[in-house]
Amino acid sequence: MFPTVSHFISYLFGINIPLPFNTFGVFVALAFVAAYWAFTQELKRKEALGILKPLKKTVTIGTPVSTMEMVSNGFFGFIIGYKLIDALLNYKLFVADTQSFILSGRGNLLGGIALAALFVYWAYKEKEKTKLTKPKTTEVTVHPYEVMSSMVVWAAVFGFLGAKVFDNLEHWDSFVQDPIGGLLSFSGLTFYGGLICGGAAVLYIANKYGIKPLHMLDVGAPGMMLAYSVGRIGCHLSGDGDWGIVNLHPKPFSWLPDWAWAYTYPNNVAGEGVPIEGCIGRYCNVLPNPVYPTPLYEIIAAFIIFLILWKLRKRIQIPGIMFGIYLMFAGVERFFIELIRVNSKYRIGDLSFTQAELISVILFIAGLLMVYFSVRNKEKLAKY
């Protein structure tokens, strides 16, 4: 496995380049890039069709830099400099445990002050370039796709918080034992928590810019499925614990690679399993028995669903149907993968289920109801 980008480079080229990037984090970033691309393409397409309209916004130009702008720039500059300079001066320590380094209170005070001053000066000079003797008010046109930058930031922040909250609810016993560690850890993220909270943030921003919720949901359907597929690549390559149950069954097809049927996830970032003989460092565990590589199955399934949604998007005219289909696909895919996936179980009487199974059923029913509602009200929604 490749817990860090350095491990991946070493595998490909046989050279060791110490880099402070874990594989899972890189693919999470790539998932946002993939979603950004798909969302932008759909927003442009719907605007060209006249479904979405650009927003007229009144802005004041030529104003001098404000105190709040200087304070905020100085604050972010200090945080970046405080951590960045210390990381450069203690690079080996930074690479060895990037997460602990970032979340610790350590840093370089002079570096923080220097970057804070630089950021304040930069904000001042940028405003001076457009400063007018008498500021004036003007009207600008904001196209729907130009809002994507704000959406991505909000989706990332609230998506991460939601993923952490849902994960800690799913693993309540371990969270109670170490609540601070559970909240601050970069590992342990639940997809549905990120989807619900990140999606709510995106809808809020979109609505502020005149993009109605149903249209935004339809726009997001293919992109969210593509992002899920890309993100699961990081889960599989890093071995973050999202694997399946033990699989000791013989391969159904001789041509199928062993790692695609049953895999032991050596050097996994979850630290699960038994020590690897002769291995030195943090990532030196391997599962004692092979398991179903469920992230790999989800990569394939999610990408196929994305292709289906991408093909359907031009044929579906009624708002809400696309997102309803997405919810049903997402629910079915995750429900069946849960049957062979390791996860915490809830129990009500004789009924046993996982958090993801419960949410999957809710998503499927919600998707079915949304399609029914959209078809039933197609005449009203045609003017939506």
UniProtKB/TrEMBL annotation:
The lineage of its organism: Bacteria, Pseudomonadati, Bacteroidota, Sphingobacteriia, Sphingobacteriales. Keywords: Cell membrane, Membrane, Transferase, Transmembrane, Transmembrane helix. PANTHER family: PHOSPHATIDYLGLYCEROL--PROLIPOPROTEIN DIACYLGLYCERYL TRANSFERASE, PROLIPOPROTEIN DIACYLGLYCERYL TRANSFERASE. The chain crosses the membrane at residues 20-39, 59-85, 105-124, 145-163, 183-206, 316-337, 358-375. This is Prolipoprotein diacylglyceryl transferase. It comes from the Bacteria. One of its GO terms (molecular function) is transferase activity. Belongs to the Lgt family. InterPro entries: Lgt (IPR001640). Pfam families: LGT (PF01790).
